[in-house]
Amino acid sequence: MPCSAVTLSIATISAIIATALLAISFSTDNWLHYDVKRANIQAFAAKHSEGEALLNSLSTKFYYFTRTRGLFRNCYPKEKPPASAVQIYLSPVETHCSNIDYFPNNDEDKIPNDDATTRLHLARSCIALFILSFVAIFCAFWTGLSGCWKRSSGAITATAILLLTACLLAAGAMGLWHTVEFFEKEKVVGEEFYQQWTTVLRDNTKLTYDWSYVVAWGGVGTCLLAAILLSGAAVCLRSEREKEEQLNLQYLMPVYSQKQPPYPPYPGYPQPQMYPAPYYHGSQYGYNY
């Protein structure tokens, strides 16, 4: 079996898997998991004088509830916050969720600082890079289809370049996502983020990466693998095409017209006499009329 067929098959499967992984991670809400131990916070509030304000926050602030966070939503697998705290709706997987607002209407008394503005722009850019990576994958689908149909090494090379571009865009989006996470942990960007939490909330909240985050990095790696395999398939196609052309040249037998004059007779050998062919009047078959 030619190496191009094997490499193209593996590359196609890798590209399909990469697209599926990136799409799943982009659309699901399990990038971060916030496990809030509400019972411990309630017990702490009952023992301290400032417990009334803490209990009020515990029942009205959504970040005091256990939740998972994605690129577009916060979802609450256990208790859900009250409707007065945040707008809740059922997601397609029947989980209570609230949208992440990328275009907030800031009140005059809550003007965001430079870090908050930077964090917001980075979060928007993360979404934009993911969308651009899907556009690159869509273009790679058509060039790859054309290259497989015509067995064109140029089209396969273009497909590899597009998939590599999609991989770099998705990796850039992941880098921006981590930068946003850094701003939320280390900068003052909003009361719902880690830097401005109370000490009690920090001590009783466990923050971990969830499966959508792992799937996203898996999609980036698989997309890079598909681009490398497609580059190898293009090289195989080019070498196979050259071998076929060389093989065809071996079966081409050129025929040249013989225009040299007849050999002269040997010396002393009598030259043959040239006689005209007999001619019969009236017919080429020899009948006279």
- SSE topology string: HEHHEEEEHHHEH
Write the CATH fold name.
Butyryl-CoA Dehydrogenase, subunit A, domain 3
Q: Give the number of DSSP strands.
A: 6
Relative strand content = 5-15%
Biggest β-sheet: strands ordered side by side in the sheet: 4-5-3-2-1-6
CATH class: Mainly Alpha
Sheet with the most strands, sense and barrel status: 6 strands, antiparallel
Task: State the main characteristics.
289 residues; alpha+beta; Butyryl-CoA Dehydrogenase, subunit A, domain 3; 7 helices; 6 strands
Compact description:
The chain has helices at residues 3-27, 38-47, 51-60, 114-150, 153-186, 199-203, 211-250; strands at residues 32-36, 67-69, 73-76, 89-90, 96-99, 205-209. It has 289 residues and is α+β, with helices and mostly antiparallel strands. The relative contact order is 0.15.
Characterization of the model:
The chain is α+β, with helices and mostly antiparallel strands and 289 residues long. The chain has one domain (3-103, 110-242): Up-down Bundle (Butyryl-CoA Dehydrogenase, subunit A, domain 3), CATH 1.20.140.150. It is built from 7 helices and 6 strands; from the N terminus they run H-E-H-H-E-E-E-E-H-H-H-E-H. The chain has helices at residues 3-27, 38-47, 51-60, 114-150, 153-186, 199-203, 211-250, and strands spanning 32-36, 67-69, 73-76, 89-90, 96-99, 205-209. A 6-stranded antiparallel beta sheet has the order 4-5-3-2-1-6. A hairpin with a 3-residue loop joins strand 2 (67-69) and strand 3 (73-76). Helix 1 (3-27) packs antiparallel against helix 4 (114-150) and helix 5 (153-186) packs antiparallel against helix 7 (211-250). The chain is elongated and about 100 Å long. The model has no long low-confidence stretch (mean pLDDT 84).
